Backbone:
């Protein structure tokens, strides 16, 4: 009797990669799992899945345009649509989900799977941010007022997360 399953002819259909780093003295983890129809990304500082968001690309490739003020060409990130599946609405989480989807599109412009993102990030610590001589945050409101935790993104965390996502490629 011959075996119907051969270890050399069948590969496990789910690819998973993960990484962890200490960013701003906080343990931060990224787990990326690729399924046939979607990519699941978890970015957590709590060790939990957190809020779930679904993102899709509205434009398949980054677009380029010419600025009237100069002859240089500027490349923009692809447009994304983000839906909250679980958890409360957070502008910060929407930005991170769009960033993750845009990174995947930049790395593989032919990627068509939807992206499910689980985010559980610590709130920005205002006492650390305000005591710093250099402002290392991005205020999403652009109103010049006080930054609240939902509209402030730490630039270092933002850049480190980008690098971590790229390390965990499954696309």
Residues:
């Amino acid at each position: 009797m011959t075996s119907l399953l051969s270890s050399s002819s069948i590969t496990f259909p789910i690819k998973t990669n993960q990484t962890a780093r200490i960013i701003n003295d906080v343990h931060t983890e990224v787990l990326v799992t690729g399924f046939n129809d979607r990519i699941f990304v978890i970015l957590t500082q709590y060790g939990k899945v957190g809020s779930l968001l679904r993102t899709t690309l509205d434009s398949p490739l980054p677009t380029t345009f010419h600025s009237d003020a100069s002859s240089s060409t500027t490349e923009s990130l692809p447009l994304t649509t983000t839906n909250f599946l679980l958890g409360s609405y957070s502008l910060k989480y929407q930005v991170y989900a769009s960033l993750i989807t845009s990174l995947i599109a930049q790395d593989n412009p032919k990627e068509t799977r939807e992206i499910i993102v689980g985010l559980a990030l610590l709130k920005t610590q205002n006492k650390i941010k305000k005591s710093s001589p250099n402002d290392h945050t991005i205020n999403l409101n652009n109103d010049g007022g006080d930054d609240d935790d939902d509209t402030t993104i730490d630039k270092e965390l933002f850049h480190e997360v980008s690098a971590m996502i790229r390390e965990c490629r499954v696309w």
In short: The domain at 15-123+155-167 is CATH 3.30.230.90 (Ribosomal Protein S5; domain 2). The first strand starts at residue 15 and ends at 23. The radius of gyration is 19 Å.
